[in-house]
Design goal:
The relative contact order is 0.12. The protein has a 22-stranded antiparallel beta barrel. By secondary structure, it is mainly beta.
């Protein structure tokens, strides 16, 4: 949370040691602000981006500087800086590029949130200014179509798919455990700040052959290059605080940060559903190092560590009226080392290593679980650009996944150990070709082999797009995908194969004058899903790849930055028909994580007179299915509909001569008692029925206050 609105603060922060301070605005030819336009000092890596009203501020230390303003779909503009008393004002007015208007991009299943490409739907800044997200990348993505709000979990559930079917990649490399570990009714959050990344690509299906081991979707996070300047960021929040020091020197930069959160003071002041015997407490460390090598080479090191601890009293579902103590300790470390460079004759190289270490100690009073997961991935990709209309990439990756779990029952002598290693080897290739200015084609394949399963798979990826008018296009995509069964299934047997899914996607997209509209129809067919007998959970002979399913629907998205002055908003809607027979499901039914209808509205208003941005988000979803053991039918229960209205505001001001942001937010403003489903006690009551226990959030509302200062 310490990163909330740091980007805004960076834009308005000015160092007293600057030689030249340049301020200005970037607009289109009609005078409308271009939000997120890049301002770069020519011949350097120094630069910034415009804020929500098109303004920018930049410190320059180079001699005879020239500024370049860039915005995708517009012609670059260069202006010489001529300062007066160390100050300069430069305003850019960019013209639309005819070549860009005639171009075509493949948009099926893809939401780009980087400002370097057309079809932009969200910017990184949007993630932390979306009220319902509370600064969480995954929380913000649930306001996009195709995603479901599963409030008790916190992971991404995409187009009727389970949470494990979505994977996260940082600079092209897997992050095995991108979510914080959690206990019942306290959903996990993403481990990474959105402002560690310059761009975010969220694919809801049909994604590139470069990425695998995800049946539904991938989230691709691209980190920043060199830091822009030396600075210190301080955050003070109602739940904790942190400090980050960044040092910029020539062609290298280093950032180190520490964060501490403790919810005990907050929980003591607010009403909570359960008694806490260990209030949530966490410490986080971040290290980001960058080194430019040669003209185009960049070496990046990205490392995060987090330690969390939480404990609460939770109903013991085996005995009515009794409570169990649940305690969780988690340690997680993620290290990502990458190198990229431009080679001769149009070749580019990207390669790296990523290592995830995650350890959970879970005490549920009646049994103990000690679990560790180590994941090491090595990857290399080569890309050749033959012309503006043709390119080809190929690469290989090797992933070692090492898992160990010790399970011990405290009331009996039963214990179980599961330990295994899996080497997943993959090769991939993909080509892009534009036979005409209004047609784009992409063809790829991916081959994978699992040493643990002794299984192989080859999948094809096909995409195409055609420009209908200067502002609209049609895209199609197809792909087949495979995924190794989750570790909690492989604990009991290795005699399984890959789970599989085929994607079919048709997309129409219109974009003009800071407005974007897209509608997408899709179908997913599942095969070889793992099934088992819940009454014989420990017996590996009952685990089979006999499951199947389908998911089909329509997603709609509209975003508008033009109609109302200094107000931007987006609306999304999703319809999904999802049914599957997998895990312990005895028949084809709608899974518990797939609401039929979902809709979100997000609006942000900037008020210049008080330098404050106000935000509002509203999310609605029809009730999700749940299984009622008192009914003869399976999964025929329906929870009440879900509705959340959240608000926030961000006020920019000066504190002790330093630029700062005062931030406040309230989640679930109306205090609706959202019920996600029901759990049931294992024993019949005196009336011969199984009593229900509602599944809902720990508290009805969440309040957050914070001050963010850059020195």
């Amino acid at each position: 949370m310490r990163y909330i609105l740091v980007a805004i603060l960076t834009i308005i922060t000015v160092s007293s040691n600057a030689q030249v301070i340049v301020k200005g605005k970037v607009t289109d030819k009609s005078g409308s602000p271009l939000i997120g336009a890049n301002i770069i000092v020519k011949g350097t890596y120094d630069g910034t981006a415009t804020d929500s009203i098109g303004n920018y501020s930049l410190k320059i230390t180079s001699d005879n500087p020239v500024l370049i303003a860039t915005y995708m779909g517009y012609i670059n503009q260069e202006i010489q800086v001529i300062p007066t008393n160390g100050l300069a004002e430069i305003n850019f007015k960019l013209k639309e590029s005819a070549n860009q208007l005639e171009g075509v991009v493949i948009a099926a299943g893809i939401f780009e949130t980087a400002d370097r490409k057309r079809g932009v739907t969200l910017q990184p800044l949007d993630i932390v200014t979306t009220p319902a997200a509370a600064g969480d990348i995954y929380g913000a993505l649930t306001t996009l179509p195709g995603t479901a709000t599963v409030g008790e979990d916190g992971r991404l559930f995409v187009r009727g798919g389970d949470g494990y079917e979505s994977k996260t990649f940082i600079d092209g490399l897997l992050s095995k455990k991108p979510y914080n570990s959690s206990v019942p009714d306290l959903p996990g959050r993403g481990r990474f700040s959105p402002f560690l990344f310059s761009g975010t690509t969220f694919s809801t299906g049909g994604y590139s052959a470069e990425y695998g081991q995800a049946l539904s979707s991938v989230l691709i996070l691209n980190s920043y290059g060199l830091a822009k300047e030396t600075q210190t960021d301080i955050s003070l929040l109602t739940v904790g605080g942190g400090v980050t020091q960044t040092i910029k020197s020539g062609n290298s930069s280093l950032s180190a940060g520490v964060e501490y959160n403790n919810l005990e003071p907050y929980y003591r002041l607010t009403s909570q559903r359960f008694e806490m015997n260990k209030y949530p407490e966490s410490v986080g460390l971040t290290l980001v190092a960058r080194q430019k090598i040669g003209e185009e080479g960049m070496l990046k090191l990205f490392n995060t560590y987090s330690g969390t601890e939480v404990g609460l009293k939770y109903p013991d579902l085996s005995t009515q009226g009794s409570m169990s103590n649940i305690a969780l300790k988690n340690q997680n470390n993620y290290t990502n080392l990458t190198y990229s460079d431009k080679l001769a004759k149009g070749w580019t190289l990207k390669g790296g290593l990523a290592f995830t270490y995650d350890k959970n100690n879970l005490d549920l009073q009646s049994f103990l679980v000690d679990e560790s997961n180590k994941n090491l991935q090595a990857k290399i990709t080569l890309k050749k650009k033959f012309s503006e209309n043709a390119s080809f990439l190929f690469g290989a990756e090797e992933t070692l996944n090492s898992y160990n779990q010790d399970y011990t029952e405290t009331t009996t002598t039963f214990s179980h150990n599961a330990s295994f290693d899996d080497f997943n080897s993959a090769i991939y290739a993909e080509g892009d070709y534009r036979p005409a200015s209004k047609i784009a084609l992409r063809v790829g394949f991916r081959g994978e082999h699992s040493s643990l399963l002794s299984a192989s798979n080859i999948g094809a990826r096909l995409s195409a797009a055609v420009k209908i008018t200067n502002s609209s296009q049609l895209s199609l995509a197809y792909g087949n995908f495979c995924q190794t069964p989750e570790e909690d299934l492989l604990r009991f047997t290795h005699n399984l194969g890959f789970e599989r899914a085929d994607h079919y996607i048709a997309n129409f997209q219109w974009e003009k004058s800071n407005r974007i509209f897209r509608i997408e129809a899709y179908k997913k067919d599942y095969n070889n899903l793992v099934t088992y007998n819940p009454n014989e959970l420990w017996n590996g002979e009952y685990y089979k790849n006999s499951g199947k399913g389908h998911s089909q629907g329509v997603d709609v998205f509209y975003r508008d930055r033009e109609t109302f002055k200094l107000l931007e908003f987006w609306v999304s809607y999703s319809y999904v028909d999802s049914k599957r027979q997998y895990r312990y499901y005895p028949e084809m039914v709608t899974p518990s994580f797939a609401p039929t209808h979902s809709a979100s509205f997000v609006a942000k208003q900037w008020v210049q007179s008080i330098t404050t941005q106000f935000g509002l988000s509203s999310t609605f979803a029809t009730g999700r299915p749940y299984d009622n053991p008192n009914s003869a039918k399976f999964m025929d229960g329906r929870a009440p509909f879900y509705h959340d209205i959240s608000i926030n505001c961000s006020h920019l001001r000066t504190i002790f001569g330093k630029s700062a942001i005062i931030y406040a937010s309230v989640n679930n403003l109306l205090g609706r008692d959202n019920i996600y489903g029901y759990r049931y006690y294992n024993q019949l009551n005196t009336e011969g029925i199984y009593e229900a226990f509602p599944l809902k959030s720990e508290s009805k509302r969440f309040y957050l206050l914070g001050i963010f200062i850059t020195l």
